[in-house]
């Protein structure tokens, strides 16, 4: 029996198993951002290892300082220190593994100083791979659930600005890991031809997923690092733009929840500023399909300043985009949110400052119909902000050149404010704008005034006729009631 088993030898691998293809790296052309950043990533690139769970208590090896070893032994010592820093510690319990945490913090700090000093020179390929792997193991993790994810409900009465941001207890270590990554990326000794094998598309995608972190300190580091990667790794630039585009799409049309939109827009503001002219069609489509629809979410107030800067950069780069931008703002103009409306008017003024007469003429009719509605708003801040547009010399000059079209649209709104608006400040500003129109073209002003008076008189006549028709109808019904015969 034993001899028979020995003769059989090891079991052969089935043909189907032997021929099974080895998982290959994700295609560089397909951009699929894992927006569910609060769940653990499921795909990894060959340059990084899977994210382990917190390690059990280990004995940290006592290693010498870099200055205490010869220069020839420093790369191997660097590698050993990186492997020590790859050990994950549990920060949920502040009293656990205190000595190990302090040892890891000191090792990370030493690595940062060593890379920053430049004394390491060009790191060997194996060290660079291990460095990126250590960074990946530490920073790519499950983000804690937000409040609405814990309860499953959304408190509409809560003000997000008043809520305390979540601060990661592991930040003293995470900060050093981010600082080491930043120093590695910006180092003049880092060769992008070698580094791009480790800081690859998969790494960049998971870096973008971390922008949804609630910790503002982490998002600030991520913003700086991603901006540096975009500037240094030219091969990643189209990929990064497309990945950010996908994040915005999901935020606008699906979740309306993301903590890092403002930081991503800050990066884009710098990127847009560097676009070459004539502008590529890809960049124009990004403006129309992603940036302008970002005005739609209710939370636009948290990132509006950065968004407005990006929009204005586009118009300043290519003035022909002004018409599309203004019409986009009108498309997403708020109806019931007055604070949002004030922000839109402020952004509109910045766009109009960069608008040329030809583009202004294409959109001035729908634009000033909306401005007229703002002038008559019962919310005094909206009406006041709209009237402040006449303090801008460039906008006044555009209005003066097209006063034959704009005066008739705006005149009725001004007269209504003079007669009925409750706020004295709005009343005074309206009188100033009205006088400006009178000084600009008295004849046109009188013509608009006559038309307004005629329109008001016709409206009164129609109201009187309507009232008379109702009285006649009531009289007919009363007469029928008197002649009605009741049948038991």
Keywords, please?
elongated, single chain, mainly alpha, disordered N terminus, 62% helix, 488 residues
What does this entry look like structurally?
With 488 residues, the protein is an all-alpha fold. 62% of the residues lie in helices and 0% in strands. The chain contains 22 helices and no strands. The longest helix is centred in the last third of the chain and has 41 residues, at 442-482. The chain starts with a helix and ends in a 6-residue tail after the last helix. Mean pLDDT is 85; it is low at 1-58.
Low-confidence stretches: 1-58
Number of strands: 0
Largest sheet: none
What is the distance, rounded to the nearest whole angstrom, between the alpha carbons of the first and last residues? 111 Å
Count of discrete alpha- or pi-helical segments spanning 4 or more residues: 22
Looking at the structure, what is the overall shape?
elongated
Taken as a percent bin, the fraction of beta residues is under 5%
Which whole number gives the mean pLDDT?
Answer: 85
Please give the structural blueprint:
Blueprint: H1 2-8, H2 15-18, H3 74-85, H4 98-117, H5 125-139, H6 147-151, H7 171-186, H8 192-195, H9 201-209, H10 216-232, H11 237-255, H12 261-273, H13 281-291, H14 304-317, H15 322-331, H16 338-353, H17 357-375, H18 380-387, H19 393-401, H20 403-420, H21 424-440, H22 442-482
Helix pairs in contact: 3-4, 3-5, 4-7, 5-7, 7-10, 9-11, 10-12, 11-13, 12-14, 14-16, 15-16, 15-17, 16-18, 17-20, 18-21, 20-21, 20-22, 21-22
């Amino acid at each position: 029996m034993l001899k028979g088993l020995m003769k059989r030898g090891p079991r052969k691998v089935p043909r189907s198993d032997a021929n099974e293809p080895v998982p290959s790296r994700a295609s560089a052309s397909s951009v699929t951002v894992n927006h569910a950043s609060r769940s653990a990533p499921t795909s990894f690139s060959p340059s990084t290892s899977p994210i382990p769970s917190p390690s059990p208590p280990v004995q940290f090896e006592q290693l010498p300082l870099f200055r205490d070893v010869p220069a020839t032994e420093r790369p191997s010592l660097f590698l050993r220190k990186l492997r020590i820093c790859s050990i994950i510690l549990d920060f949920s319990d502040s009293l656990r593994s205190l000595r190990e945490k302090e040892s890891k913090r000191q090792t990370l700090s030493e690595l940062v100083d060593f890379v920053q000093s430049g004394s390491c020179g060009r790191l060997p390929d194996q060290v660079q791979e291990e460095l990126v792997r250590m960074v990946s193991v530490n920073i790519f993790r499950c983000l804690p659930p937000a409040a609405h994810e814990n309860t499953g409900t959304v408190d509409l009465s809560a003000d997000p600005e008043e809520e305390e941001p979540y601060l990661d207890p592991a930040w003293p270590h995470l900060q050093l890991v981010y600082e080491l990554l930043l120093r590695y990326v910006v180092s003049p000794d880092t060769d992008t031809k070698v580094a791009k094998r480790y800081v690859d598309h998969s790494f960049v995608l998971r870096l973008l997923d971390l922008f949804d972190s609630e910790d503002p300190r982490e998002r600030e580091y991520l913003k700086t690092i991603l901006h540096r990667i975009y500037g240094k790794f030219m091969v990643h630039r189209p990929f990064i733009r497309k990945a950010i585009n996908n994040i915005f799409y999901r935020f606008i049309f699906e979740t309306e929840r993301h903590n890092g939109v403002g930081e991503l827009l800050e990066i884009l503001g710098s990127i847009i500023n560097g676009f070459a002219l004539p502008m590529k069609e890809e960049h124009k489509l990004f403006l129309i399909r992603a940036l302008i629809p970002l005005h739609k979410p209710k939370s636009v107030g948290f990132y509006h300043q950065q968004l407005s800067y990006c929009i204005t950069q586009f118009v300043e780069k290519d003035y022909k985009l002004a018409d599309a931008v203004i019409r986009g703002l009108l498309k997403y103009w708020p109806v019931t949110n007055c604070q949002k409306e004030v922000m839109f008017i402020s952004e509109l003024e910045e766009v109009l400052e960069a608008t040329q007469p030809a583009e202004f003429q294409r959109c001035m009719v729908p634009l000033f119909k909306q401005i007229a509605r703002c002038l008559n708003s019962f919310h005094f801040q909206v009406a006041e902000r709209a009237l402040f547009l006449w303090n801008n010399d460039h906008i006044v000059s555009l209005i003066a050149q097209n006063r034959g079209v704009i005066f008739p649209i705006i005149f009725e709104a001004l007269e209504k404010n003079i007669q009925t608006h409750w706020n004295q400040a709005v009343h005074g500003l309206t009188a100033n704008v009205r006088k400006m129109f009178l000084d600009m073209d008295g004849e046109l002003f009188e013509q608009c005034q006559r038309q307004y008076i005629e329109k008001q008189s016709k409206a009164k006549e129609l109201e009187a006729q309507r009232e008379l028709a109702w009285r006649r109808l009531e009289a007919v019904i009363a007469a029928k009631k008197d002649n009605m015969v009741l049948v038991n």
